[in-house]
């Protein structure tokens, strides 16, 4: 596997992990805990993150020439989602998944 | 346009309308109102409905031989979402969109 | 409905129409005709267009603060897809849907 | 992790691997090789498989009560895609990914 392919493969895996972590924590933590966990901005950040990761995986796995746009948007959204999770607390898994995904996506978008 | 094609086209449009209505009302009504609007079961029903409609549109527009499975699942999910919206109240647009989508999807799945 | 909302609603509809038109024509025209219709670049452009429109609809209907990134990417991809369809020929419906979607998405991304 | 959760986690990973393998091989093998690789039925099977896996991951990671419908449909579609890939040849990676995904999805749907 070339270096370019290995980097993309790692980014796909980080996006997949971030997508399922955000989706699971939204459903099993945020919607159970309520309060700040269900504030509009936080839930929108979580849903944006799930959708951004999904689109990123799709464009990268198709080796689309446009994958960099989706990686750039995903990096931004992951940062916002990680910050929101950190502020609310009790979302460490989500913070970690978003930070790792943000880093990979930034590298792919460069 | 043949009758079969016209029926599918109508179903695609009902799914598209249901998807965007649920997505908009989740964000702009449920996440603003809070209370019963952000109960786990209700939000999951709304998210399932958005995803079910999206998958349905995708399989129908590709004229997939498997579209009937996705229409059958979408009809079930739309019924659950419409019931949940009706019970909570203030979600009439969503109830109407889900009922219309449920009817079309049931017909496509038959 | 405010002007901003009406413009977004029109963009959502143009994306939905572009998504289903590209998906249907890929399956029912390109994969039947073969030849230039199944060249790697053309099929990738069609698949990118379907995915870009789907992501755009999702981010706009959630009123995401990041919808402009997805609209900007979709406008670019629609232009490439329209050009590819025009060059191959026999894809007028697709060209029209992509051009309309590109125009709406450019306006939303501005 | 409970047994139920471990089984679902494994199924999510098999769906993710199947989705990206099919998407990559469609773009990098089928659209390059042409001939039987771009027959309508084969490409539709590949696209159905990508979409089925994507929907499955989404419903499972949200712990949706309806995930079994999406797993059942995905199992069927993976079988069709694996058979199509086997018949065409040169698609061993895809066959393996589809078979593993089919097995997991069948178990989740039971």
TrEMBL record, chains A, B, C, D:
Signal peptide: none
InterPro entries associated with the record: Csp_YhjQ, YHJQ-like
Superkingdom to which the source organism belongs: Bacteria
Protein name: Cysteine-rich protein YhjQ
């Amino acid at each position: 596997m070339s270096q370019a392919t290995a980097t993309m493969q790692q980014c796909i895996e980080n996006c997949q992990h971030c997508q399922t972590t955000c989706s699971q924590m939204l459903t099993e933590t945020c919607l159970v805990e309520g309060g700040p966990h269900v504030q509009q901005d936080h839930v929108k950040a979580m849903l944006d993150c799930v959708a951004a990761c999904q689109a990123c995986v799709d464009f990268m796995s198709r080796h689309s020439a446009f994958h960099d746009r989706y990686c750039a948007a995903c990096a931004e959204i992951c940062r916002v989602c990680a910050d929101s999770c950190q502020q609310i607390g009790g979302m460490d898994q989500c913070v970690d998944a978003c930070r790792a995904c943000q880093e990979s996506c930034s590298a792919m978008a460069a």
